[in-house]
Specification:
The protein is mainly beta. Helix content is 8%, strand content 41%. The strands form ten sheets. Strands 2, 5, 8, 9, 10 and 11 form a six-stranded mixed β-sheet that branches.
Length: 652
C-alpha cells in the first residue's frame, strides 16, 4: 500500500524549494535597486539603534552607535559599530551591511531643511550624560549615545525639528561645510558635510527622548539636493576593527576604611583594627582599562574563621560608577569567636565582565586587621535638647552608642560596669538630696533598685569579682556639711557595711584588696586604704596625693599593673584641669595629659593601654604607653555632647 507524506516531510520539502528559489534568483532582489535597498537598510539600522537603547537601559550604562568616517573625511558608510562602557568605552561589535546592501549607504550630515539645524538639544530632553567626558579617547566619527535613562545624545551631530537625522540611499554626492549654530558639547568634534545628491533616499529620525522612526524620502527637504531614482554608491568609509589588545585585569585604586584607624592605635604590621563586636566598612575604588564593569569580592582568613561580609563571599556585589572609577562598599564583621590580639588577613578580588581578575592582599592597599581590645564604655549624658541625664553605652571605639535607661526628667550618673560586662550600676536622683543605687543589664533590661534610703547615695563601683558594690552614703547631700561615708554592700543590695572612711569616688584595686578615694573638703587629698573583702573592713588608711598638689579628685586604679598599683586622678591648678598618675608605693607623681581642654574623670581600658576621659564637654580616648609616661593620640568619641557627659566606666 502506498503511504502519503508526513507533515515533517512536507515541511522539509517546502524548505528545500524555498532555498532553490533564492539560489535561482541569485539574490538579485537584495539591494540591487536603490529604493528597495534604502528602505531595507534604513529599517535594519533603526532596529540596531533600538537594540542599543534597550541594552543601555538594561545594563545601566551608556551604549553608542558610531558611523565610520575614514578619520572625518567621508560622511558615508556601509557599516556601524557599538561602543560601550562607563569609563574608556570600547568598540564591542561591528555590523557591515555592504554584502546585503551593496548599492546604498548611510550619510551623516546636513541638507537644506525647513527647520534650522542646530547643535542645541531641546530643553525638554535629558541632559545628564556628559558626552565629552564619556568619549575617551575622542573620535572623528559621529555617535548616537544612548544613556541608561533611555535618552539619546551625540557628539555634536546637528538636530533639526528637535531630532537627529540619518539618510540612507545610493549615488550620494556631498561637500564639506562649517558647523551649524548652537552650543558645542565636544572639545573635539567631527567634520560637517552637506548632501547635494542622493538616489532613492530614506530618512531615520531619532528623537533625543529615545523614539526612532523611518521616513520615505529626504525628511524636511526644501530644495538644493538632487533626488535621483537610482544610483550606485561610489565610495564609503571602511568598517572599523574591534578594540584589540586582549583583556587586562582591573586595577585597584584604593581601599578606604571607616572608621579610619588612628596610626598610634595600630598594632605592628596591621593597617586597621576592630572590636570583637564591631565592624569595618571597606570602600573600594577600581578601574578597568577596557571600560568593563568591575565587581568586587572579599575574603578573610584568621584564627577563628573568615567572619562575615556584607554578602556571601561567593557572590558579587554590584558596584556603582562614581567619578571615573568603580566604587563598591562592603562591611566586614569579625567571627563571633574572635578574641583581642588576633590578626586577620583580608583579600580583595576584582573581576571584570569578561573574566579577567586580580586578587590584592595586604601591602597592596588591602588591610591587615587586628582585633582590638575594645570592651564597653558606659557614661551619663543628657539626651539631645534635655537637661536630665540618662545612662548610655557604646563600644570602646565610640560606635553602637545607645541610651539604656531612658528615664525622662530623672537624673542618672556615677556609672560603673562589672568586670565581666554583664551589669551596669548607677545612681538615680528622685528629689533634691535623695539618690539611690540601681543596676541593670547592658541592654537596659533587668533593672534592680538596691538602696531605698532618703540619703544621698551615689558613686557605685563594682568589686573585681562583681559580688560587691562600693558606694557613698551622705546624709545631707553632696554640698552639705556632713561627710560622705564609704559603704559596701552585696551586688544584690544586701549586707550594707559602713567602712568608716569619709570621702567620695571610691574605687577598688584590680585585686580587690585596696580602696582609693578622694576626701572632702572637695578635692583636698587622694587616700588609699587596705581592704579585706571577707570581713569587709579597712586598715592602713593613708594619703598618697597631698592637697598641696592642688584640687585632686576622681581617683581610679590602673588596670594593667596590679603588682605595682598606679592610680590616675584629676588635678586642677589655677583653673586648668589635667590628668595625673601616682605610684602608690613610691608616691611619685606624673602628669599624664597636657591638653588645651579641661581634662577630668579618666578611666582605664580593660587592658590598661588606653584611657577614656572627659575633655571639656566631650568624651575622648588617649593611648597610654605606661602609667608613668604622658599619653598620646587624642581621639574624640562624642562631639558637643553637653554638660551631662561625665564619670565614664570601661569594661571588657
Amino acid at each position: 500500500m502506498r503511504r502519503g507524506f508526513s507533515l515533517p516531510e512536507l515541511l522539509v520539502a517546502v524548505g528545500l524549494m524555498a532555498i532553490l528559489l533564492v539560489l535561482a534568483s541569485g539574490g538579485l532582489n537584495r539591494g540591487t535597486q536603490s529604493g528597495a535597498g534604502s528602505k531595507g537598510l534604513a529599517t535594519v539600522v533603526a532596529g540596531e539603534l533600538t537594540a542599543a537603547r534597550q541594552r543601555a537601559m538594561a545594563n545601566g550604562r551608556p551604549v553608542a552607535v558610531g558611523f565610520p568616517s575614514a578619520g572625518g573625511g567621508m560622511p558615508v558608510s556601509q557599516s556601524l559599530y557599538f561602543r560601550e562602557g562607563d569609563d574608556l568605552p570600547r568598540t564591542r561589535r561591528v555590523v557591515n551591511f555592504s554584502g546585503d546592501f551593496p548599492q546604498v549607504g548611510i550619510f551623516v550630515g546636513l541638507w537644506p531643511t525647513s527647520g534650522a539645524a542646530t547643535l542645541d538639544r531641546p530643553a525638554t530632553a535629558s541632559s545628564a550624560l556628559d558626552v565629552d567626558a564619556w568619549c575617551n579617547p575622542p573620535t572623528n566619527d559621529f555617535l548616537l549615545v544612548f544613556s541608561p535613562d533611555g535618552g539619546v545624545f551625540s557628539n555634536d551631530l546637528p538636530l533639526f525639528d528637535g531630532q537627529y537625522h540619518l539618510v540612507v540611499g545610493g549615488g550620494m554626492v556631498y561637500t564639506s561645510r562649517g558647523a551649524p549654530p548652537g552650543t558645542a558639547r565636544m572639545t573635539t568634534r567631527p567634520s560637517y558635510f552637506s548632501l547635494s545628491s542622493v538616489a532613492a533616499p530614506a530618512t531615520i529620525r531619532v528623537d533625543p527622548c529615545g523614539s526612532i522612526a523611518v521616513d520615505a524620502g529626504l525628511t524636511g527637504l526644501t530644495g538644493g539636493v538632487q533626488i535621483l531614482t537610482s544610483g550606485s554608491l561610489t565610495g564609503a568609509a571602511p568598517a572599523p576593527a574591534l578594540t584589540g589588545g586582549g583583556n587586562a585585569a582591573p586595577t585597584l585604586q584604593s581601599v578606604e576604611l571607616f572608621p579610619e584607624p588612628h596610626p598610634e592605635s595600630l598594632s605592628p604590621g596591621t593597617d586597621a583594627n576592630v572590636g570583637p563586636g564591631g565592624y569595618l566598612t571597606l570602600i573600594v575604588r577600581a578601574t578597568d582599562n577596557e571600560g568593563d564593569r568591575v565587581d568586587v569580592r572579599w575574603a578573610a582568613q584568621g584564627p577563628a574563621g573568615p567572619g562575615t561580609f556584607s554578602t556571601l563571599s561567593t557572590e558579587r556585589v554590584p558596584s556603582s560608577y562614581v567619578q571615573g572609577s568603580w566604587r563598591s562598599v562592603w562591611e566586614w564583621r569579625p567571627p563571633s569567636g574572635a578574641i583581642p590580639g588576633e590578626v586577620y588577613q583580608l583579600t580583595c578580588t576584582l573581576s571584570d565582565e569578561r573574566g579577567a581578575s586580580v586578587t590584592a592582599t595586604s601591602g597592596a592597599g588591602v588591610p591587615m586587621v587586628a582585633i582590638r581590645r575594645e570592651g564597653w564604655i558606659a557614661f551619663p549624658q543628657s539626651p539631645p535638647g534635655e537637661i536630665w541625664r540618662d545612662i548610655y553605652l557604646m563600644c570602646g571605639d565610640g560606635t553602637r552608642k545607645r541610651n539604656i535607661t531612658n528615664t525622662p526628667n530623672i537624673n542618672e550618673w556615677d556609672v560603673s560596669l562589672s568586670a565581666d560586662g554583664t551589669r551596669v550600676a548607677y545612681a538615680r536622683g528622685f528629689t533634691v538630696g535623695n539618690n539611690d543605687i540601681f543596676t541593670c543589664n547592658p541592654d537596659g533590661s533587668g533593672e534592680q533598685r538596691l538602696t531605698f534610703s532618703s540619703d544621698w547615695e551615689t558613686c557605685p563601683s563594682f568589686s573585681p569579682g562583681g559580688d560587691q558594690l562600693l558606694f557613698v552614703n551622705d546624709t545631707d547631700g553632696w554640698s552639705g556639711a556632713a561627710q560622705g561615708q564609704l559603704t559596701v554592700m552585696s551586688a544584690d543590695g544586701s549586707n550594707r557595711t559602713s567602712l568608716g572612711l569619709f570621702g567620695y569616688a571610691g574605687k577598688f584595686s584590680p585585686d580587690g584588696l585596696s580602696i582609693v578615694y578622694d576626701q572632702m573638703p572637695f578635692g583636698t587629698e587622694i587616700r588609699l586604704a587596705d581592704y579585706d573583702p571577707i570581713t569587709r573592713t579597712v586598715s592602713n588608711d593613708r594619703v598618697i596625693v597631698p592637697s598641696s598638689l592642688g584640687i585632686n579628685s576622681s581617683p581610679r586604679f590602673h588596670a594593667g599593673y596590679p603588682g605595682v598599683p598606679y592610680v590616675i586622678f584629676d588635678n586642677e591648678q589655677a583653673g586648668n584641669g589635667q590628668i595625673f598618675s601616682v605610684n602608690t608605693t613610691s608616691l611619685a607623681v606624673t602628669q599624664k595629659t597636657s591638653l588645651g581642654g579641661y581634662c577630668s574623670e579618666a578611666f582605664y581600658s580593660p587592658d590598661g593601654s588606653q584611657i577614656v576621659l572627659r575633655v571639656d564637654q566631650d568624651l575622648a580616648v588617649v593611648d597610654d604607653p605606661a602609667p608613668n609616661l604622658p599619653v598620646s593620640g587624642l581621639r574624640y568619641l562624642t562631639e558637643a555632647a553637653g554638660a551631662g557627659v561625665e564619670n565614664a566606666a570601661w569594661s571588657p
